[in-house]
Amino acid sequence: MSGRLEQARALQGWMSGHRRHLHRHPEIGLDLPRTHDYLEGVLTGLGLGVERHDGAGLTVAIPGSAPDGVVSVLRADMDALPVEERSDVEFRSTIPDAMHACGHDLHMAMLLGAASVMTVHPPRRDAVLAFQPGEESDRGALGTLRHDNLQIDSPATAFAIHVHALEPVGAILHRPGPFMAIGDWFAVDVTGPGGHASQPHLAGNPIEAAADFTTGLRSLVAELGVDEHVVATVTECLMGNTVNVIPAKGRLRGTIRTLSPDHRAALIAGMRDLVTVVAERLGLDASLVLHEGYPAVINDADYIDRLTTRLSSTDLGAMLKPMTRPSMVTEDFSYFLQRWPGAMVYLGANVSGHSAFNHADDVVYHEDALAIGAALHLEAADGV
Fold first, then answer.
1. pLDDT tens digits for 129-188?
2. CA 218 from chain center: how many Å?
3. Phi first, then psi: what are they for 27, rounded to 5°?
4. Average pLDDT score over the chain
5. What contacts 363, CB < 8 A, 6 or more positions away?
6. Which of 65, 134, 211, 376 has CB atoms 3.0–4.6 Å from 30's, for a disulfide?
7. 114-136: per-residue pLDDT in tens?
8. Assessment of whether the complete model's pTM goes beyond 0.85
9. 367-382 pLDDT per residue, tens
10. Per residue in 3-36, pLDDT tens?
């Protein structure tokens, strides 16, 4: 039998066609009717039985040629981002304010490619392929994990790929333990009496409070980040609407990323103290509201060891690249890894001359990553 990479490369054009269709027709969130329809059509066209739950994705169970009692769960996410595309690709999004800026169109095409190969060359293990909506902010993994195909009584492992727009095409980035961060969102609401712009001493200014909080947050992150990477970013500031009025209220929003529960707790406690100090100094009322995000993506060390050992004996071995530290990106594949041991890897997809990272409105991805990603799924299903 030919190698998995060779089998996948035979479908390069087929996967590229599906990827480009999906890229042209992105959908956001959990409700992805056109994407569900399209994937279901491709999978049933391959002769596969599909379990579909609108708003919770699709799953396909494929029997192995020599099952060993362990099921391989392979996952691809489906949703796009609320971004107006600014790239110059010929297959750019046709949907206003929607773009596959994170590469989920490639993820779907890779897993479709793996499914197609499996219909001719079955995986050694029993496999379940899961296409999941709502990864970006809707915890879509939780709905997909309720599929009947994923109520697995026997031991199982979970594997997923995420393309990386800045890493060389084909590089397979891996690490045991923390792979992606815990992610939370926060809001700081500030209120005061407001007043005339000529009399700042009579009214604490929420805009000044926002500036002090943002500056103080940088110092807090620097202090906590000495022994473990911590991120806290203010991304939105809503306050004021004219030049001669001190606003009576305002709101800041942003995100925090941490790698351990201890550092998360310390960062949140420090933010609460900072809000209190800033508000008292300016004579304002302020509160911090935290919205719990995704858990960390924790790769199983034994699984990573088995995966890299297996890949080292294949054409993919030369592409392996250990990661020196975790990514501060978040991913709800973390919920899969809370149920089963497994791993996520980054797959490089950089296009020469382009420097935009995932989520940028002009990001592009190299389609040569498609065959490599499909082969990775196949190798994982064969027995990692």
1. 999 999 998 999 999 999 999 999 999 999 999 999 999 999 999 999 999 999 999 999
2. 25
3. -135, 150
4. 97
5. 87, 101, 103, 165, 354, 356, 357
6. 134
7. 999 999 999 999 999 999 999 99
8. yes
9. 999 999 999 999 999 9
10. 999 999 999 999 999 999 999 999 999 999 999 9
Per-residue pLDDT band for 384 (boundaries 50, 70, 90) equals confident
What DSSP string describes 299-364? E-HHHHHHHHHHHHTSTTGGGEEE-SS-BS---TTHHHHHHS-EEEEEEE-PPTT--PPTT-TT--
Please check whether residue 11 is in contact with residue 374, taking contact to mean a CB–CB distance below 8 angstroms. yes
What are 316-353's pLDDT values in tens digits?
999 999 999 999 999 999 999 999 999 999 999 999 99
The closest alpha carbon to 32, from 133, 102, 106, 135, belongs to 133
Q: How many Å apart are CA 49 and CA 59, to the nearest integer?
A: 9
Instruction: Please say whether the beta carbons of 346 and 164 come within 8 A.
Output: yes
Among 383, 147, 384, 176, smallest CA distance to 297 is for 176
Spatial neighbors of 257 by CB under 8 A, at least 6 apart, are: 181, 182, 183, 230, 231, 232, 328, 329, 330
Of 172, 154, 2, nearest in space to 64 by CA: 154
Half-sphere exposure in the Cβ direction for 366 (13 Å, CA): 22
Band of pLDDT at residue 1, cut at 50, 70 and 90: very low
**Distance (Å) of CA 333 to CA 75, 106, 223, 324, 343:** 8, 16, 30, 21, 9
Which is it for the CA torsion 335, 336, 337, 340, positive or negative? positive
Closest CA to 164 of 156, 155, 154, 174: 174
SS (H, E, C) 35-71: HHHHHHHHHHHCCCCCEEECCCEEEEEECCCCCCCCE
Helices (H), 164-255: 206-224
* Distance, first Cα to last Cα, the chain: 19
